[in-house]
Amino acid sequence: MPHGQGHYLKLTWRGEVRRVLVHDPPGHEGRSLPLVLALHGTGGTGRIMAHLSGLSRLADERDFRVAYPQAQGEPGLEDPVRGAAWNAGPGLGCPLHPGADDTAFLQAVVDRVDQHGPVDSRRIHVAGFSNGARMAHRLALSAPWVSAIAAVAGAPVWGEAPARPVPTLMFHGTGDRHIPFEGGLGALGRQVPALPAREAAARWAALMGCGPEPGTEDLNAHRLDLWSSDACQVGFWTVAGMGHAWPGGRPYAPGADLPAPDLSAAHLIWAFFEAHPLESP
Question: What's the structural domain count of the chain?
Answer without folding.
Answer: 1
